[in-house]
Design a protein that fits this description.
Number of helices: 22
Family: Belongs to the IlvD/Edd family.
Distance between the termini: 16 Å
GO molecular function: iron-sulfur cluster binding; lyase activity; metal ion binding
Helix content: 25-40%
Radius of gyration: 24 Å
Number of domains: 3
Protein name: Dihydroxy-acid dehydratase family protein
Mean pLDDT: 94
Number of strands: 14
Strand order of the largest sheet: 7-8-12-11-10-9-13-14
Keywords: Iron, Iron-sulfur, Lyase, Metal-binding
Strand content: 5-15%
Structural class: alpha/beta
Low-confidence stretches: none
InterPro entries: Dihydro-acid_dehy_C, ILV_EDD_C, ILV_EDD_N, IlvD/EDD_N, Sugar_Degrad_Dehydratases
Shape: globular
Bound molecules: FE2/S2 (inorganic) cluster, magnesium ion
């Protein structure tokens, strides 16, 4: 055991007592710590500052009991909090910060394996990124979604109800009190967002990667099974340490390809793109634009908001991720022979899963949508961006994408905003003459520009258009959009404007042409004019407000590359060597 280098190292008897003594002051004995039992870290992501993950404060007790019963010793420690909705200027800054912190903890302390407690959006990728860098045995315990919310006799999911109510607020249909009541009705219990937003997406992806026990992702936080999974997860990590079952055996290229396939099938968040890319790169694997393109044709088979109607409870009752994986495997869309944390293959894990119920989970033969993946887009405004096809409304499809003679082609006048404040200040300005053919563009919202990359690309139309029944316009931006929003958006434009990408020279009034048949998006501006504008427009970037923002900007890459700290990718299998005394 790695931990025995601290606690029972015959070469350094002078150090052993120093390492041991303070652990005794909460009652551990030297015999326990020197017995060669696996010492298991519980990476605690729950706190008062991360309410989405707060259930883990209780679940940790069951994890500990599982670890003990399997012969291990538990050591729980806090992670840097990541709370999507409250963290300014954006929780995206925290993913890489929590990653760095966890790598240091796993490297620097006497731990043999780790339970990653996950939930809110970025808690999942940050933990997996660190486990990949270290390559110590690791298992994911999801916290689970909140119970379903109900408002005015209808099921309402997190995020989606906020976007919908914001539009009703803008249209003058409800007041602020109604708005807050609708939001509160969607936040029913302990747990993370209960739509297929980023949190549910990333926990489903962790399970599909093979990093959590089968069925773990979808169980609501408040169900008894959640605490039972906590216990089983604690037991299993001890066995994994004894089997030396490390992430490098699980996080293969095939695992990440299957994660991309799953994302399409569940109508997952656009944020899956940078997070899958980041996890893969830290695991030493490559996923390419072609890999995303090939899986854009995977059908949507999960009927869960925002692409469908059900919420977390319905998904869990239908059997959760194993049922989706079984259906995809049956259609030959997965790699079932790869290793998982159970010590068995993915195919073995899902062999006994229920069949698709035909309502919450559809079959590949009768999907909700035929091609639901995240579609990579390129053109003269950016080298890379993605579009989420599964949430484009039927109305939008009919109005713009299925016009006779121009199917899939859309041309509109660009309305360009520099960051969220500029959008809020000017969106209702009549001088912009925004009509139902315009395309809203957000720049300065990428990893460098914001900094961190913000979920601000899903802009709603001006109030006057909403009152006239136009509830969404196409949007383009170098930031991200919330995993629960339903606007037809092209997001993650890379390189971003602040890095000199094409959005930096785009101007309000330019015509943008989007062709979904060819996957291109171009501004109809000629080369000479582009060159002239490039020479005169320096990319805008607000000053860094904290030391971490400055350090983040010095090392972060594009959303195309996962917005990782680029130098950190060089560090692979760090746990193979012990740190010096
Ligand atoms: Fe934390 Fe959605 S805000 S899970
Ligand atoms: Mg989000």
């Amino acid at each position: 055991m790695r931990s025995q280098d601290w606690f029972a190292n015959p070469a350094r008897p002078d150090m052993v007592a120093v390492y041991l003594e303070r652990f005794m002051n909460y009652g551990l004995t030297p015999d326990e710590l020197r017995s060669g039992r696996p010492i298991i870290g519980i990476a605690q992501s729950g706190s008062d500052l991360n309410p989405c993950n707060r259930v883990h404060l209780q679940l940790a007790q069951r994890v500990r009991e599982g670890i003990r019963d399997a012969g291990g010793i538990a050591m729980e420690f806090p992670l840097h909090p990541i709370f999507e909705n409250c963290r300014r200027p954006t929780a995206a800054l925290d993913r890489n910060l929590a990653y760095l912190g966890l790598v240091e903890i796993l490297n620097g302390y006497p731990l043999d394996g780790v339970v990653l407690t996950t939930g809110c959006d970025k808690t999942t990728p940050s933990g997996i990124m660190a486990a990949a860098t270290m390559d110590l045995p690791a298992i994911v315990l999801s916290g689970g979604p909140m119970l379903d919310g109900w408002h005015e006799g209808r099921r309402v999911g997190s995020g989606a109800v906020i976007w919908a109510s914001r539009k009703r607020l803008a249209a003058g249909e409800i007041d602020e009190e109604d708005f807050i009541a609708a939001a509160a009705a969607s936040a029913t219990s302990v747990g993370h967002c209960n739509t297929m937003g980023t949190a549910s997406t990333m926990n489903a992806i962790a399970e599909a990667l093979g990093l959590s026990l089968p069925g773990c992702a979808a169980i609501p936080a408040a169900w008894r099974e959640r605490a039972q999974y906590a216990y089983a997860t604690g037991r299993r990590i001890v066995e994994m340490v004894e089997e030396d079952l490390r992430p490098s055996r699980i996080l293969t290229r095939e695992a990440f390809l299957d994660a991309i396939t799953l994302t399409a099938a569940i109508g997952g968040s656009t944020n899956a793109q940078p997070h899958i890319t980041a996890m893969a790169r830290h695991a030493g694997q490559t996923v390419t634009v072609q890999d995303w393109r090939e899986r854009a044709s995977v059908p949507l088979i999960l009927n869960m908001a925002p692409a469908g109607t059900h919420l977390g409870e319905g998904f869990a009752r239908a059997g959760g991720v194993p049922v989706v994986l079984k259906e995809l495997a049956r259609a030959g869309l997965l790699h079932p022979d790869r290793m998982t944390v159970t010590g068995h293959t993915l195919g073995a894990n899902i062999a006994d899963a229920a069949d698709a119920d035909g309502d919450v989970i559809r079959t590949v033969a009768e999907p909700l949508l035929p091609a639901a993946g995240l579609l990579p887009i390129t053109g003269n405004l950016f080298d890379f961006a993605i579009l989420k096809a599964s949430v484009i409304s039927d109305g939008f499809r009919r109005r713009y994408l299925e016009r006779p003679g121009a199917a899939g082609v859309y041309e509109g006048r660009a309305i360009v905003f520099d960051g969220g404040d500029d959008y809020h200040n000017r969106i209702n300005d009549p001088a912009l003459q925004i009509d139902e053919t315009c395309i809203l563009v957000m720049r300065g919202a990428g990893p460098l520009g914001w900094p961190g990359s913000a979920e601000v690309v899903n802009m709603q139309p001006p109030d006057a258009l909403i009152r006239a029944g136009i509830t969404s316009l196409p949007t383009i931006g170098d930031g991200r959009q919330s995993g629960t929003s339903d606007s037809p958006s092209i997001v993650h434009c890379s390189p971003e404007a602040a890095a000199g990408g094409g959005l930096s020279w785009l101007r309000t009034g330019d015509i943008i042409r989007i062709d979904l048949n060819t996957g291109r998006c171009d501004a109809l501006v000629d080369e000479a004019e582009i060159a002239r504008r490039r020479a005169e427009v320096p990319p805008a970037m607000p000053a860094s407000q904290t030391p971490w923002e400055a350090m983040y900007r010095a090392h972060v890459g594009s959303l195309e590359g996962g917005a990782v700290l680029e130098y950190a990718v060089e560090f692979q299998q760090v746990g193979a060597r012990l740190p010096r005394h």
